[in-house]
Amino acid sequence: MKHTFDRLRLSSVHRSFANAEGEQVAALKGLDLDIERGEFIALLGPSGCGKSTALNCIAGLQPLTGGEIWLDDQRIDVLPPEKRGFGMVFQNYALFPHMSVLDNVGFGLKMRGMGKSEIERRARAALQLVQLVGHESKLPGQLSGGQQQRVAIARAIVIEPPVVLMDEPLSNLDTKLRIEMRAEIRRIHGGLDRATIYVTHDQDEALSMADRIVVMREGVVQQVASPKEVYCRPKNLHVARFMGYRNVLPCTLERAAGEAVEVSAGGVPLVGTPMEALESKSAMIAIRPDDLVRAEAGTPNAFGVHVDVVEYGGRDSLLLVSAPFGKMWARVEGEFVQGERVTLAISRERALVYRPEAAS
Ligand code: ATP
């Protein structure tokens, strides 16, 4: 078992399952991915897109139906999970309820035949890293959810795996603890110089934790990029929708102008940023509710709207408005009343223009 590596490479990984009718249905359709040592990678996508399948294929818990996985110059998809030696953390912690915290953490080392004092030394060091010193002799049931998940993380890292795989590890925790644990997991990752591959369907989690995000849909990678890139420049409409570009409206292409593109939407001229090659006059414009701002009439990229619904949000309000080109959501600072007419504007950089859905 390798403790360190430079690159984990997934090459054209396929995984199919037989459905009830006995037909093969593909959960992963040719996954290519290079992961460097030290990286924190999030696999992000809606339920059923193949995230857990990808993680299980990397761990060796499921065989591939095509493709290869390499750890540097060693092909590992042919190895059983214990030979790969990756650490795994699951949503449900999967701790042994009748074993102490220390014994839970040391279990993997015991299975490897390590001596008692060395197991204890390493298990204590792992518990120190996850900040659970003082809890060694407790049973898992005596710990909070967040503490139990930290035990699970200590157990995964104590074997000094080259790669730690985490499948929605925070889903069972309440919101406050989830947010605390994000930072905690990042901190633990930072102390390891290994790779972490983290499965989540939560955009905020992926954005706040990952060095790179792999956005998946129906077994196919849509985009691999930094959190900022995925957030600000989603590669296609599917990624845009998933990343919170809630307003996706049809428009007509008028003129390409360097890095900008002029479109009209419901008769309103708008300047946006083209995100892919636009091959016909018909296009879609994608806008995040938070990127709309209140503006004076006559401002570039401004349009008048009728406020249909107001959801008070303290500092800002979430509005459902009728614009000349359709209904849209806007999260705007200040207070509003239903029935009011206001002018909203969007900057050119934040109005993203894509090909229509069927063609993308
Ligand atoms: P979730 O977030 O809901 O866990 P996911 O993105 O992790 O979803 P997977 O669990 O990888 O998705 O599932 C991908 C596809 O493969 C789904 O269509 C699922 O129904 C199918 N699938 C997964 N495991 C099996 C299995 N053991 N037998 C048959 N089909 C499966």
Overview of the structural elements:
The mean pLDDT is 92. With 360 residues, this protein is α+β, with helices and mostly antiparallel strands. The protein folds into 2 domains: 233 residues, P-loop containing nucleotide triphosphate hydrolases (Rossmann fold, 3-Layer(aba) Sandwich); 120 residues, OB fold (Dihydrolipoamide Acetyltransferase, E2P) (Beta Barrel). It is elongated, with a radius of gyration of 24 Å. The two termini are 43 Å apart. It contains 9 helices and 20 strands. Bound molecules: adenosine-5'-triphosphate (ATP). Adenosine-5'-triphosphate (ATP) binds next to helix 1. GO terms for molecular function: ABC-type transporter activity; ATP binding; ATP hydrolysis activity. It comes from Trinickia soli.
Q: Secondary-structure element sequence?
A: EEEHEEHEHHHEHEHEEHHEEEEEEEEEE
Which ligands, by name, code or SMILES, are bound? Answer: adenosine-5'-triphosphate
Name the shape in a single word.
elongated
Which topology of the largest domain does CATH recognise? Rossmann fold
CATH level 4 superfamily of the largest domain: P-loop containing nucleotide triphosphate hydrolases
Main-sheet strand order equals 6-7-8-3-9-10
In round numbers, the mean pLDDT is 92
What profile does the largest beta sheet have? 6 strands, mixed
Note the total helix count: 9
Number of strands: 20
Catalogue the unreliable spans. Answer: none
Oligomeric assembly = single chain
- Total discrete domains: 2
Tell me the fraction of residues in β-strands, as a range. 35-45%
Give the class from helix and strand content and strand pairing.
Answer: alpha+beta
Based on the coordinates given, report the CATH architecture of the largest domain. Answer: 3-Layer(aba) Sandwich
Rg result: 24 Å
- Give the terminus-to-terminus CA distance: 43 Å
CATH class of the largest domain: Alpha Beta
Helix content: 10-25%
